[in-house]
Design goal:
Elements (H helix, E strand, L loop, with lengths): L9 H6 L2 H6 L2 H21 L6 H9 L6 H11 L2 H12 L13 H37 L4 E6 L2 E7 H25 L13 H6 L4 H14 L16 H30 L2 E2 L19 H16 L1 H8 L10 H27 L2 E2 L1 H15 L1 H10 L4 H22 L5 H7 L7 H5 L11 H15 L26 E2 L9 E2 L3 H11 L6 E6 L2 E6 L17 H16 L6 E4 L5 H16 L20 H7 L9 E4 L1
Parallel strand pairs: 9-10
Antiparallel strand pairs: 1-2, 3-4, 5-6, 7-8
């Protein structure tokens, strides 16, 4: 249920993907803690500590079903998050509770988890950058030969091509990708270092045997999918790691903002624009507007991301000796929201880069309006070949250009540079001879070749989507046997706590027994009749709001589910309707119920009470249904 009485981050509700949000979720964090505790126990067992297979099996059995309620209650008492989760894990694993977190400090789970999470987040950022590069590569190839104005100082300069400009965006994104890859490659676990990094607690555990301590650390590192640990550290890994990682991510903000700004300017020129949906509204006051809202959002989020990198920079500089805790609160926000911002930017970039709209006629018209100025040197060379004086012609071209520019700017008339040159006997050139120098394609230099170079490079790096190319090689291939997939219910406490449908009844009864709710009943009065609802009663609500009732597919599915419930003997089936429903909703509901009642011979439904303003369905339509067998009793609950 939506909460409207407290602040909720827009990253959660509007911008960041579910995938990135899960990476920084409590669930991913605390499950990783448990994986680290299991890895530590296994490594310590291998080196001779008295840890049994049974204890490890118990830990593994509960690695994913985190008992949050117990941990939250404990933290209120002891004010320590790690020890609260050690305690909660111990409640689930009574045989193993004595060896959980053995020899470790809080940063064993905290810092190692942060490194693991950063790697997961960097890999997601990497995947999405490659997606944007693939979209832009296709775009650049399509428009590599289309001449357009190039700009320096935001003033028309020489020509480039639409595709060549896209390669400028690609080049900077590729630079970001290289830096992301560098950070992924150099990330190292904090490892098993003890309270201040000296591993003193492990010296005690292993009787001063350094070889065993090194073996434990290497074992944990391998189990967590890493190839190295930091060589030395205090209580935490160096906070410069956070700065380096977020700096690489913030580099994406620079590239994205530059690209989005270019598109915003081109939209103003009407040469190119971001995708614009059929029913999208550009302005509440001006219906004709097509504002570049996606690119504006990219710029807004990019500013946030670029500034956010100051947080880990200042945190790294203000750590005292082996560690101070003033890093924690800042780090929780800065690192997570930096990645959420990058994810949001890339989500929009993927959309924009996949649907860029180019207006070739506008592009051509703008080129031709400026081309007479740009072609002046070619015109001068042709006149010199016919006997003209280069220095004199240069001065006359300068005068004609100034006069033509004044006509355009001061009088609002078309560029008349060509007419002026044609009328000047010093050049001795006809209109046809002058216009022969005005082919835009002759002024784009090696733009098409440069796009081809980028294409070749993108293909060599695997960033080019070629359906006819050889099958790709993936770092990991996951095979799923669909026959093992079971219909499941979400919950009871979190959506991803799935319960197989076949075990739903058993689990439901167990929950009731655990909570002492075996005999609970609720009485509901509907139209003067009293109904007793016990555990297992099912209520199906067709929410007749302006957003739901207009979705006919959803309403029909609700009706069919109600029909099937009645067929299986589940009664009473309560249909909720709104007394404040609008007329259009009422019409939708009318069609919905007619469809439900007239397309089945075992509906088990009768008409609900009419809505205010318009009957839900005509009597005649329902009368036609009365010939159907098994028309059961259904109550209408007014609210």
């Amino acid at each position: 249920m939506a909460q409207h009485d407290r602040y909720i981050s827009p990253f959660s509700t509007r911008y960041a993907s579910d995938e990135m949000q899960y990476i920084f979720s409590d669930d991913n964090k605390f499950r990783t803690w448990r994986k680290l505790w299991i890895a530590l126990a296994k490594a310590e067992q291998k080196q001779g500590l008295a840890i049994t297979d049974e204890q490890i099996a118990e830990l593994e059995a509960h690695k994913d079903d985190v008992n949050y309620e117990d941990a939250i209650a404990r933290e209120k008492l002891v004010r320590h998050d790690v020890m609260s989760h050690v305690y909660a894990y111990g409640l689930q694993c009574p045989k193993a509770k004595g060896i959980i977190h053995l020899g470790a400090t809080s940063c064993y789970v905290g810092d190692n988890t942060d490194v693991i999470i950063m790697r997961e987040a960097l890999q997601l950022v990497r995947k999405k950058i490659i997606g944007v590069l693939a979209n832009l590569a296709k775009f650049a190839d399509e428009y590599k030969d289309m001449p357009c104005l190039a700009y320096t100082h935001c003033q028309p300069a020489q020509l480039t091509t639409v595709g060549k400009r896209a390669t400028l965006w690609m080049n900077e994104l590729y630079m970001d990708l290289e830096e992301i890859d560098h950070q992924i490659g150099q990330l190292a676990l904090r490892g098993v270092k003890g309270t201040t990094g000296t591993q003193a607690s492990f010296m005690e555990l292993f009787g001063g045997d350094s070889a065993k301590i090194k073996a434990v650390e290497a074992d944990v590192c391998a189990q967590m999918g890493f190839t190295k640990v930091v060589p030395v550290c205090g209580q935490t890994y160096s906070r410069k790691v956070d700065y380096n990682v977020l700096s690489a991510v913030a580099g994406l903000g620079q590239s994205a903002m530059k690209m989005a700004t270019d598109i915003r300017l081109l939209a103003n020129f009407k040469e190119m624009e971001e995708p614009f949906e059929k029913n999208q509204i550009g302005s509440s006051a001006m219906p004709y507007k097509r504002n570049p809202m996606r690119c504006e959002r990219i710029c807004a989020l990019s500013r946030y991301l670029m500034v956010d990198v100051l947080n880990p920079a200042m945190t790294a500089g203000t750590q005292w000796f082996e560690r101070t805790l003033d890093d924690s609160a800042n780090k929780r926000i800065a690192m997570a929201e930096g990645f959420l911002a990058a994810d949001a930017i890339l989500n929009i970039l993927l959309n924009v880069s996949d649907g860029l709209v180019v207006y070739p006629k506008v592009v051509r018209a703008r080129v031709m309006a400026e081309l007479p100025f740009m072609a002046s040197e070619n015109i001068m060379m042709k006149a010199v070949k016919k006997g003209g004086d280069r220095q004199e012609l240069h001065e006359r071209l300068r005068e004609h250009a100034v006069a033509a520019a004044a006509v355009v700017k001061q009088e609002g008339k078309p560029n008349d540079m060509i007419a002026r040159v044609e009328a000047d006997p010093a050049f001795g050139l006809s209109r046809e001879e002058i216009e022969a120098e005005l082919s835009p394609e002759a002024f784009t230099g090696r733009s098409a070749e440069q796009v081809a170079l980028v294409e070749a490079y993108a293909k060599a790096q695997g960033y080019w989507n070629d359906p006819e190319a050889a099958p790709r090689t993936y770092a990991e291939v996951i095979e799923l046997d669909l026959s093992t997939v079971q219909p499941s219910l979400a919950g009871p406490s979190r959506p991803h706590d799935r319960i197989p449908l076949a075990k739903a009844g058993e689990r439901f009864r167990a929950i009731c027994a655990e909570r002492g709710l075996d005999d609970a009943t609720v009485h509901v009065e509907v139209d003067g009749e009293d109904y007793e609802l016990t555990h297992g009663a099912i209520a199906i609500a067709a929410v007749t709001s302006c957003t739901t009732a207009t979705d006919q597919a959803m309403m029909l599915a609700t009706g069919l589910m109600a029909r099937n419930a009645a067929e299986r003997g589940l009664a009473p089936v309560i249909i909720c309707e709104s007394a404040g429903t609008q007329a259009e909703d009422a019409k939708t509901m009318k069609r919905f119920f007619e469809a439900c009642l007239c397309t089945t011979s075992q509906s088990g439904l009768r008409p609900p009470a009419p809505l205010v303003g318009e009957p839900l369905a005509k009597r005649q339509s329902f009368a036609e249904c009365q010939g159907l067998p098994s028309i059961g009793e259904v109550s209408a609950l007014q609210r």
